[in-house]
Amino acid sequence: MTSQRDVFEVSGPVHLTSVNWNCLHYQRSVAASLVQGAYVLERDRQQNRQGSEACAPPWWESFHFEVIRKLIDDSDFSIFGAIHEYRPPISLQNSTVTKAPRFVIVFRGTITKKESVSRDVKLDLHLLRNDLHQTSRFEIAMQAVRALVSAFGHQNVWVAGHSLGAAMVTLAGKIMAKDGMNIKAFLFNPPFLSAPIERIKDKKVKQGIRIASSFITAGLALAVKGPHHKSDSFRKLSSWVPYLFVNQADDICSSYVGYFDHRKKMEEIGAGNIGKLATQNSVRDLFLSAFGMESESLHLLPSANLTVNSSPAPDFKHAHGIHQWWRPDVDLQSKVYLYD
Questions:
Q1: How far apart are CA 115 and CA 24, in angstroms?
Q2: Which residues constitute the signal peptide according to the record (predicted)?
Q3: CB neighbours of 134 closer than 8 A, spacing ≥ 6?
């Protein structure tokens, strides 16, 4: 039975009858719709929905995109993403179209259906172990990103993903940024692997925990790496400003709110250098480094354009879902954090 959430006409951004590509609201909504299309592509495959019964095409065709390649996992042959090309009709040629992406590469998150859940959960575990980069699915994704950027330039390629897919986008974006190519990236509910401090309601307690954690992390960094250590990796990433979309009620990604805001708080109390040192290290990475094993936690980002959804969420499914990011009635606040 087809879920109503898969049907564009029922659950999609049908209110977007035209797209202003100069506006982040429209960019976010279309990017999220394309990511949802990747989810529906895989569910179409699992349920053998073909031809007129397929639900996926409207999720990209409504915005004049075409799928030029499906990204298929080599382990279970599930569809985990897609490459879209923007092909607007001549009647839509206007000044904002020049701001549209030529290509968008999207990656879905975990699907809890028997045909794909085993592989997806294994990848979630790789994410927890911080070795997602060693998986064949990511290698396929990275090859697709590199090939498209090599052929058409990084300015013509956007990447977008949700949940596990957002982690893949983060990893791919970091790799490209270290090579000097800042690719435009949309991260919907990206995983932040740490204790869910955002659950704490008392602001003073929460701030106290963060300050103590920063001093501990900075102290460990000085002990392990020395007082003159500078993170070249973090410096190279500082000019890459991905678009992060998080929900305050989603424990998987909500810690990004405190991660960036706390750096500003540390500057306000005169401990900016400690805050900067702490924000580019994790206790886990430092312990591994002490034993000669290099590791770089995926969630450590120097800069970001962070959008927070503060609208009430009835449950985790809604707080973590992709559908929220094209709703016209959500309470969103955006702020740019640049690492100096």
A1: 35
A2: none
A3: 126
* Residue 336: exposure state from Cβ atoms within 10 A (0-12, 13-18, ≥19): exposed
Give me the residue label for tokens 């998080």: 246
Rounded CA gap, 288 and 230, in Å? 18
Contact 91, 110 (CB under 8 A): no
Q: Please, are residues 327 and 309 in contact by the beta-carbon 8 Å criterion?
A: no
Q: Which two tokens stand for residue 309?
A: 């959804």
DSSP one-letter string for 12-45: S-TT-SS--TT-HHHHHHHHHHHHHHHHHHHHHH
Task: Tell me the C-alpha distance between 162 and 189, whole Å.
Answer: 6
What confidence tier does 34 reach under pLDDT thresholds 50, 70, 90?
A: very high
Cβ neighbours of residue 256 under 8 Å, at least 6 residues apart? 190, 192, 244, 246, 299, 304, 306
Condensed to tens digits (0 to 9), the pLDDT of residues 123-168 reads 999 998 889 999 999 999 999 999 999 999 999 999 999 999 999 9
333, with CB counted inside 10 A (0-12, 13-18, 19+), is: exposed
* CA distance linking residue 148 with residue 139, whole number of Å: 14
Helix (H) or strand (E) holding 107: strand 103-107
Query: What is the torsion angle, in degrees rounded to the nearest 10, for the CA atoms of residue 127, residue 210, residue 264 and residue 256?
Result: 30
What φ, ψ does residue 157 adopt, rounded to 5°?
-125, 130
Give the per-residue pLDDT at 77: 95
Count other Cβ atoms within 10 Å, centred on residue 297. 16
Q: Is the pTM here over 0.85, yes or no? A: yes
End-to-end CA distance of the chain: 52
